[in-house]
Amino acid sequence: MKLWKNILFFLSVMGPGIITANIDNDASGITTYSVAGARFGYGLLWTLLPTTIALVVIQETIARMGVITGKGLSDLIRENFGVKMAFFMMLGLFVANFGNTVANLAGWAASMEILGFSKFVMVPVGAISIWILVTRGSYRFVEKILLFACLLYFGYVISGFMAKPDWGPVMKNAFIPQMRMQELWNAEYVVLSIAIIGTTITPWMQFYLQSSIAEKGIKKEQYKASRLDVIIGCFITDIVSFFIIVTCGALLFPHGIRINEASEAAIALKPLAGEYAYLVFSVCLANASLLGAIIVPLATAYYVCEAMGWEAGINKTFKEAPQFMWIYTMTIVLASLVILIPGAPLVFLMVLSAVINGLLLPFVLVFALLLVNNRKLMGEYTNSRTYNYISWATIITIIILTSFLVVTTFIPLNG
Amino acid sequence: MPFFGEVFSSEIIKKTVLDPKGEDLGRVRDLVIIKGDPLPKVSALIIERKKKSYYLPWHDLNIFNKKIISSRVYAESLKSYEMIGDDLLILRDILDKQIVDANGAKVVRVNDIKLEGYHNEAVLIAVDVGMRGILRRLGMERGGEDLAKLFKKSLPFNLISWDYLQPLEPKLTEISLTIPRQMLSELHPADIADIISSVSQKDGATFFNNLDIETAAEALSELKPEMQADIISAMDTEKAADIIEEMPPDEAADVLSDLTTERAKEILEHIEKEEAEDIQELLGHEEDTAGGLMTTDFIAYPPDMTVMEATEKFKTDAREAENVYYIYLVDKEEKLRGVASLRELLLAENDCHLADIMETNLKTVAPGEDEMVVAGIISKYNLLALPVVDENGYMHGIITVDDIIDLLLPPEAKKKRRRV
Question: The pTM is what?
Answer without folding.
Answer: 0.69
